[in-house]
Amino acid sequence: MTTQTTETAPFVPSFDAPESQGRKLAIICSKGNLDMAYPGLILANAALGEGIETHLFFTFWGFDMINRKTSGELKFTMLGNTATHMPQGLGGIPGMTHLATSQMKKAIADLDVPEVPEFLDQIVASGGHLWACRMSADMQHLGEKDLRDDVEGIISASDFIELTEGAQLLFI
Amino acid sequence: MPTTTIAGHAVEVNDEGFLTRPDQWSDDLGAELARLIGIELTDEHWKLVHFLRDDFALQGETATLRRVSTQTGTPVKSLFELFPGKPAKKMAYVAGLPKPKGCV
């Protein structure tokens, strides 16, 4: 980065600095809880906004994020989550997961952060790539027709490793 | 605070080169800031830059890419075409505003 400040050459941010070119990020989304869907989406969106080539690989429960039937229906539960700092027994009361989910969705919407399907729309519009895990598709008996149209393919773990060569990787 | 001279105007900038005083900005300066980062401003660009200026005046912070998209009705894809690579930061720079703080 240039640090000199002179009267003749204007000091301009180095948006397209060569050292930041060619950076790649791979995010493996393996969870289907509402609260665990967001970290990957937010980081993917941030990376794309920085001009970083970004690939998301949905596997196991993360498949719920790209399955048309479940994408908008992810839930948040207090059960097993001590970070709510509430008695665990409360989480088992009928309707509590529904309530906790509604509250979390409202908190997210209040920040003008979109719901999962719309967030994925934004990621794809920003140039992000979505990939589905072959084994998860086979286990759940799902095919391309069950997934969002913008999922680029159902691929094996080794295919994903190959196409993200040189990428930084996040497992969520 | 360092200063730099852009199109004959002495402006205050931070250590990354973003203008630190929104009141030192003008349309002329905006056009020159854009040129310096390789963007020729069209009417579409100007609409967004002026939205950012107006929104900053009201909200006190720079709109995120999502806010620009939803509030102006401009698809995110178009924002990436108009301000390639790092649209949110480039828009903020051209508008003479700090880079956005929001995550989304």
TrEMBL record, chain A:
<protein>
    <recommendedName>
        <fullName>Peroxiredoxin family protein</fullName>
    </recommendedName>
</protein>
<dbReference type="Pfam" id="PF13686">
    <property type="entry name" value="DrsE_2"/>
</dbReference>
<dbReference type="InterPro" id="IPR032836">
    <property type="entry name" value="DsrE2-like"/>
</dbReference>
<dbReference type="InterPro" id="IPR027396">
    <property type="entry name" value="DsrEFH-like"/>
</dbReference>
UniProtKB/TrEMBL annotation, chain B:
<dbReference type="Pfam" id="PF04358">
    <property type="entry name" value="DsrC"/>
</dbReference>
<protein>
    <submittedName>
        <fullName>Sulfurtransferase TusE</fullName>
    </submittedName>
</protein>
<dbReference type="InterPro" id="IPR007453">
    <property type="entry name" value="DsrC/TusE"/>
</dbReference>
<dbReference type="InterPro" id="IPR025526">
    <property type="entry name" value="DsrC-like_dom_sf"/>
</dbReference>
<keyword id="KW-0963">Cytoplasm</keyword>
<dbReference type="InterPro" id="IPR043163">
    <property type="entry name" value="DsrC-like_N"/>
</dbReference>
<dbReference type="InterPro" id="IPR042072">
    <property type="entry name" value="DsrC-like_C"/>
</dbReference>
<comment type="similarity">
    <text>Belongs to the DsrC/TusE family.</text>
</comment>
